[in-house]
Each structure stands twice: as structure tokens, then as C-alpha cells.
Amino acid sequence: MKIQLDITTEFTINSLTDLAKFKQVMEHLNMKINKSKLARDMGVDRRTIDKYLNGFIPKKKRNKPSKIDEFSPIIASLLSEDSKQVFYYRRNLWQYLKDNHGLVCGQSTFRRYIANTPEFQAYFEKDERVSMNKMSGIRFETRMGQQAQLDWKESIPYETKDGEQVEINVAVLVLGYSRMRFFYMSISKSQAVLLSFLTETFEKMGGVPEELVTDNMKTVMDEARTTQSAGKVNAKFAQFAKDFGFQVKPCLAGRPQTKGKVETTMKLLDEIHAYQGKFNLAELHAYIEELCNRVNHELHQGTNKIPILEFQKERNHLRQLPTEPIRDSYKIDHKLVKVNASSMISYKANQYSVPPGYQGKKVGLQVYDDQLWIYYNMELIAQHKISDVKLNYQQAHYEEMLEKAMPDYPDINDLAKRNLAAMGAMYK
Length: 428
Description:
The chain is an alpha+beta fold and about 425 residues long. It contains 16 helices and 14 strands.
């Protein structure tokens, strides 16, 4: 009897762990293994080949649960289509979870977690931003006190916690050497607002840079600078520059990379969208100030230095401020008003609320952008839209007053709504 056996002599090696079985096959076939060729083909050392041929089995890695896993439901909710909040960058989401949900981990660890979670990674892949590095050309550095760069983060749509849809603008000034930033939120970008912002910022800095780099915004330039024209600074801003002793350096139209230091800073302000529906305008103003303070105390990626520490050196090289009367002439009018026993201030025969605790105190009042901005010791404590209504309460202020007066009442929120409705003073 003759029996024909079809024995397959082909053997596929998918990984190093297949080598032990491959050795058995080769021994049965009485064939020699070319270890050197195996090592070359698999990109490993010959000694590694020997080890696996002799039956080495690596220890299985334990799939430890990530400490970020407990935040997964929160992340899923924040990134859902139903969420008003928007996170343009993974960094924004990481910072938000740190500040509001107690996340404790490094940014790189968090980025890996998002990258390894397909449904979260997909959220960021659909809206990738153009990196400023791709837009930038040659990097220029300036000496201490030489230059500041100015720009607006414009027309940011924002929904307040009361459901009001507004557009805000944030003025940004960056010192070229230290990378110290200054932010200011405003409804408008009027020249009065810009000059007041610059004046108060120079006062905070304790001096003035030699030059100010800006784009061709209408509040600065009557005619844009182009390759054919030097442009024309408008008369009001030219006088401001003369009074403060700095040169105006407009960029060429269409070349934002010329002021790359301030353009890079604009990405930081995208964090505002993480708080859509969370703040009223006064709270948003305070948040933007906190954001500015935070980034000035963090390591700057470009310089690998901390801006606030470098600023302590740079401020000694700034030019002297002009006299106080000159500075005051460019500030938005700031007058003192007294808070009455009902936690209200008066403006043009109508009353507007402030948080309880300021009764009898004098607070600062600024009026611009059709808004009242109320300060105490330079801190913004309330903001109101100018109204024709006699009494203008913010519900949060009124609730706080009721809580102090009636601490045992079961539903202060409902009582506040009913009382305000009865008075015709509901503020939204």
C-alpha cells in the first residue's frame, strides 16, 4: 500500500512568539534555521531570536484601568452634540476638567487617553485648526522694553447663563521680550475702549514700550499699510502715541504673522467656549482676567520661561508714563456712586443691583457699550444693560439678599422669581 502525504512546508511568522513552533517544524523537517536572516528580517538582535526559538514567553502586560476612566461620562457629556460648550483643543478640555472636576494628571497623559478613545478623538479630528507654526516665517526676538503687540479677538459668540446671545471682543497686548499678556473684554471695539485699555495696561506695566505693533484696524489706521504704501495712522491715535511716547508699527495688510506673538496668544482665548452658558457678562469678565493671570504664571512654550518672572526684568526697561492728567484724559469716565440699603446704585433715575454686602459703600461706575460696569477696588462686581425700567435686579443678587434675610425659607429661587415678577424687575 502506498500512502501519499501532502505536508505543507510553508510557515508564516507573524511575531517573535511564533519562533518556538517554527523551530519544532524545522527540526521535524531536519532543516537548519538561518538565525541571522531571521534577525535581519524581523529587525531584532540575533540573541533575541535565540531566546524566542528556545521558548521564551514575555509576561503579559496588565491592562490597568486609567485614572481618567472615572471622568469618561463627564467627557462624553461635554463633547456630546447636546452640549453648548465647545472645546477647540484637547488642552482646553484638560484645563476645564482640572479647574471644574478635580482631574489630576499631566496634559500629555490626557492627550494620550483621548487619542486612545476613538469616540473622543473623533471630536477633535473634525475641527482641527491650522497651526500658527505653518503660517509663521522667521522668528524675531526683541530686546527688553522694545516692543508690544496689539490685537483683538473679535466677535466671539457667547451665550450667557441667562440664555442671552451676545458677541464679545477681547483686546490683547503682549510684551515682545517677556511674553507678558494683558486681556480686556468689551462688547465693542471702539477707539475709546481701545485707548482706555492701552492706558490702563501701560499703568499696570508701570511704563510704555518703545513701539507698538498692530494690524490695520480702523481705530488705529485711516489707510492700511501695503507693499505700495506706508499707510496713515489716524489723528487721534497718532496723538495718543505721541502723548505716551511710542512709535506705531502697522503690519503689512494680510500678513498677521508679522505680529506672531499676539496671534499665538489668540488660541488661548478659545478656552472661553468651554464656558458657553456658564457665566453672566460680569463673571465672564472675571474669568478672562483669571485666564490671563494663569497663562502669565505658566511656562511659555516658545521661550521656555515664565512670563511674569521675565516681566519683572523687562518692566525696568520701559519708558516713563506720561503725567496723570494726560493718562486720565484717555480713560473711560469712572465715577463713584453709593450703594443704597437695597444693594442698588442709581443711574439716570433708574436703579441697578449689586451683590449684597456693599450697602453704604462707594463703588466705581463706568458707562460704555450701552452697559453699566460696576467696580469695587478695581474688581468688577456687576454689569447691567442700560434700561428704561425703574428697578433692575439681577436674580442672583436678589436671591442672595433673600437668603440672608430668610435663611430658613424652603425655596428661595421660586420666591425670588415670584417677587421679581411682581415688581416687574426681572433681569435677563
